[in-house]
Amino acid sequence: MSATHASGPRGATSANVRSDAEIIEDIPEPPIASIEAAEMPAGITGDEPRVPAAWTDVTIQDVYDARTRIAPHLPRTPMLTCRTLSELAGSTLGFKAELFQRTGSFKSRGAMNAALQLTPEQRERGLITISAGNHGQGLAFAASVVGTKAVIFMPKMAVPTKIDAIRGYGAEIHFTESMDDVFERMDEYRLEHDLTFVSPFDDPAIIAGQGTVGLEILEEVPDVENIVVQAGGGGLLSGVSMAVKSLRPDVRIVGVEPRGANKIRKSLDSGKPERTGPIVTIADGLAAPFAGNLTQAMIGHYVDDVVLLEEDEIIHAMRLILERMNVLVEPSGAASLAAVLSGKAGIQPGSRTVVILTGGNVDRAKLKSLL
């Protein structure tokens, strides 16, 4: 495995470190959120309703084009390794470190690919989106690069560091009480101000941009057998799975999401995109309120399995990554390792596996209680 090694194992933690179960008891539950049945508007291709989505709507050529398009603006992220975590997993692990991407997550890939394809008229009007934070940062940064404005609607309980970063990139933020009304409020503003909506996940340009992560994984670990990918709205999971399966159909792709925000698994089980319903998870980056039409079609075709995680499993993985690799990821970023260590990803012993560390934008106020 061609990789950049993280620092070696650290010493044992002190005896007074609290258990994951004790930590979870003290974490305030996020507001219960649900979204009324309202269709998302079209993405950067225009404001007209889209035709029914198909898994063929994004191709490997789209991903190659996206890589060429975004390369001048975004770096390639490293592949880390850790002997201790590999031993715990019973698999040779590689860690695709997307937390080191510009804006602290993979989201800038799709956002940049979308922004660079705007028409002059769309660029003049400006962009709008909804976000828990990471997509908002990615779109704000991309908008600053192409010279257009970005308006981000997000719940007021969003992570403060993500809010500060979005403002730092020059975007305008509007807050809503919770995820209950963020989409409705955004869409009203979009229509009133004639802005172009860029979906956090359910847009071909977004998916193709996220798919560039898959290309890099295959180049860095050519003998990879399993890739474990977090699923919020599914943009990363659909993009990576399409790119990888197009080139290496034998690679097993596993998606992971919190049990308290399980819209992807629920949609696969019902056969249609579903709303999340009550959202209860510390992994705010995976708390999308609904599944997308396009992402769900692609996930249903390309992904081998989607598994659900408990909160303590996510926290445990986050702590291990910090202790054994000296790398601080947000809860969402640790979910892929959690699926491997819990056995839920179904990884065969001794196989080569890549997990994606999707983001590093940690809520400082919550960090002490988590770790």
Strand content: 5-15%
Number of discrete domains: 2
CATH topology of the largest domain: Rossmann fold
Number of helices: 15
Number of strands: 11
Radius of gyration over alpha carbons?
19 Å
Write the CATH architecture name of the largest domain.
Answer: 3-Layer(aba) Sandwich
SSE class: alpha/beta
Oligomer: single chain
Return residue spans where pLDDT drops below 50 for at least 5 consecutive residues.
Answer: 1-42, 44-50
Arithmetic mean pLDDT: 87
Strand arrangement within the widest β-sheet reads: 1-2-3-11-8-9-10
CATH C-level name of the largest domain: Alpha Beta
Fraction of helical residues = 40-55%
What does this structure look like?
The chain is built from 15 helices and 11 strands. The protein is globular. The two termini are 30 Å apart. It has helices spanning 20-26, 60-70, 83-89, 107-115, 120-125, 134-146, 160-168, 182-193, 204-220, 235-247, 263-270, 293-302, 311-325, 331-341, 364-370, and strands spanning 4-5, 79-81, 92-97, 127-130, 150-155, 172-176, 196-197, 226-230, 252-258, 305-309, 352-357. Strands 1-2-3-11-8-9-10 form a 7-stranded mixed β-sheet, sandwiched between helices. Strands 6-5-4-7 form a 4-stranded parallel β-sheet, with helices on both faces. Strand 4 (127-130), helix 6 and strand 5 form a beta-alpha-beta unit. It folds into 2 domains: 55-107 and 203-370, 3-Layer(aba) Sandwich (Rossmann fold); 108-197, Rossmann fold (3-Layer(aba) Sandwich). The chain is of the alpha/beta class and 371 residues long.
